[in-house]
Structures are given as structure tokens and as C-alpha cells.
Write a structure and sequence with these properties.
InterPro entries: Acyl_CoA_acyltransferase (IPR016181), GNAT_dom (IPR000182). The chain is α+β, with helices and mostly antiparallel strands. The chain is built from four helices and seven strands. It has one domain: Aminopeptidase (3-Layer(aba) Sandwich), CATH 3.40.630.30. It has a seven-stranded mixed β-sheet, sandwiched between helices. A hairpin with a 2-residue loop joins strand 6 and strand 7.
């Protein structure tokens, strides 16, 4: 069955929340400690929409299999042409091309919006995500030591960058 991408709606937020909260509780992909509430996830969606940032969901087999979005990289005006993306795939759908389908669409939207560069900030131990980004054309733009703390240990950040122009 094929992957269908579409803009996320409020009705999708419980399924998105399931993906997010799994990542929070079980991985270092999201450096939050506490699970998100549905209200917070809805607020995040509305904020992305209000700023004209995409928030996409991927459907496969009638289920939300993943989501992708991007937003402000840093909150100073000089960074306005740089975005940081997030792509997450439900654990039951890994290896089905969902992540690459979502990221390719985000890249195309960013180009249409005349953005200059896209950043992915990844835990340095997440070798799968780093390899995925390299496959998608991103380059390692830097490694910053001990920028986060989760699961009782320090985590390093790897910055992966794709020039859009």
C-alpha cells in the first residue's frame, strides 16, 4: 500500500502524540523528559500553521505512520531563511520509506518558500538518523559536545545541513 502525505489536522494530533510520546519515553530523538499533552500538541500544530510552516502526516494502511514539520531554527531575524526540521515515523512503520517521503516533501516546500538551508539536530549516538540524513543529501555541519542531558547521561548534538539553493 502506498504512502499518502497530507497536511495535518486537529484530528491527527492524538496519533501524532502517540509517536511523540513514544520517542520522549524511549529514545533520545526528543530531549524532553515529560510526555506531551494533547493540548500542547494542538498548540504546536496551530503555531506551525500560523507561521506558514508545514506540518505533514504520512498515512499508510489507513493509519498515521509518521509526521514531519519544520520551524524556526533560532529566534533572531538573521536566521529567518534557515529552518530546523523534525521527521518521526511510528515504530511499527520503520523501513517503509515514510521518513524519506516526508523529508523529501518538506525539502520541496522549503524550496518553494525560498528558504536557504535546512538543519537537522540529531543525538550523536543516533547513527541511523545520521546515515539517513546523509542519504538524503545532508552534510555534517558540526558536532557540539554535551548539549543535552537525558536518561542520566550527557548527549552530544550533530548538526546536519542541507543547502536548499
Amino acid at each position: 500500500m502506498s504512502i499518502k502525505l497530507r497536511p495535518a489536522t486537529l484530528n491527527d494530533m492524538p496519533a501524532v502524540l502517540e509517536i511523540v510520546n513514544y520517542e520522549i519515553l524511549n529514545t533520545t530523538a526528543i530531549w524532553d523528559y515529560d510526555i506531551r499533552t494533547l493540548e500542547l500538541q494542538i498548540e504546536i500544530l496551530k503555531e506551525k500553521q500560523s507561521k506558514n510552516f508545514p506540518f505533514l502526516v504520512a498515512e499508510k494502511e489507513g493509519k498515521i505512520a509518521g509526521f514531519g514539520t519544520y520551524g524556526t531554527f533560532r529566534h533572531k531575524i538573521g536566521y529567518r531563511f534557515t529552518v530546523e526540521h523534525s521527521v518521526y515515523v511510528h515504530k511499527d512503520f520503520h523501513g517503509n520509506g515514510i521518513g524519506s517521503t516526508l523529508l523529501n516533501e518538506l525539502i520541496e516546500i522549503a524550496k518553494i518558500q525560498k528558504l536557504h538551508t535546512m538543519i537537522g539536530v540529531i543525538d550523536s549516538e543516533n547513527h541511523g538518523s545520521i546515515a539517513f540524513h546523509q542519504k538524503m543529501g545532508f552534510e555534517n555541519a558540526g558536532h557540539i559536545k554535551q548539549t543535552g542531558f537525558k536518561f542520566d547521561r550527557w548527549l552530544d548534538s550533530v548538526f546536519m545541513q542541507l543547502m536548499l539553493e
